[in-house]
Protein: DDE-1 domain-containing protein
Amino acid sequence: MARSSGISPSGKSTLITRGVPGNMKLKPFIVFAGVPGCRVADEVTSASFGSSFVEHTVQVKAWCDHAIMKEWITKIWRPSVDGCRMLLLDSLKVHKMASIRELLEDECSTQVQYIPPGVTGLSQPMDVSVMRTFKRKIEDLYVKYHTEHPFPRDAAERRVMLSYLVGKAWNLIQAKTMIKGFRQAILLPVGPRDENGVFKTYLRPLPDVSVVDEDSESDVVADQHQ
Structure:
C-alpha cells in the first residue's frame, strides 16, 4: 500500500494505491479536502463523478486518518480478499492502531506487516518501482491534457480532471512494473500452497508493535482516576 500526498497539480489531495505481484491492481483511492456531508463530499461520492476506475472520498485536511483508513479497508481492500493475504504498511500511526489491525485480521483474513521507518524506498514494492512510474505518467498525461484543453475554471473541474488522470495513469501501469517492485524489495511469494495454488498462511496474534487507539487511551486514563 502506498500513499502520495499533494499529487494534484493544483489543490490538496492524497492518493492511496495498492498492488500485488501479478496482474491485480486495486482501485486508486483519492482523498480530497472536504467535510463529510458537505457539497464537495456529495460531489465526489456521486456515481457520476470522475473516473469509474477510481474511488473518491473527503477528509478535512485530505489526509489518511482512522476513518479514511477504515473506509479504504471497507470499500477497496475487503472486497478484493478471496483468501489469506499479507498487507505491507508503513509506520504511519493510523496503520498501527489496534482497531485497524484487528479489522484487517478478523474481518479480512489479512496478516499485517510493518515496514520500519526510513526504508520504504528499499522494502516497499510500491515505492521501489510503481509510484515513480505512476507519478511520471500522471505528469505526462497532465501536460498532454493541457495542450488540447483549457485549464480548469475552478476547484470542481480540477477534481474531475485529477480523477480521470489518476484512473488513466493507473491503467497504464503494467504487471511487469508491479513484479519488478516486489523483486527489487526481495519480497518473493514462496511457501506452501493448497491444491488451487493459494498460499496456506496463518494469522499471528496481535503484536506489541500495534498502538492503542486514542479513544481507548482516554478510557484507561479515566478508569485510573476513578
User: Anything to note?
Assistant: Residues 97 and 206 are 11 Å apart (CA to CA). Confidence is low (pLDDT under 50) at residues 5-11. The chain has eight helices and six strands. Residues 2-188 form one domain.
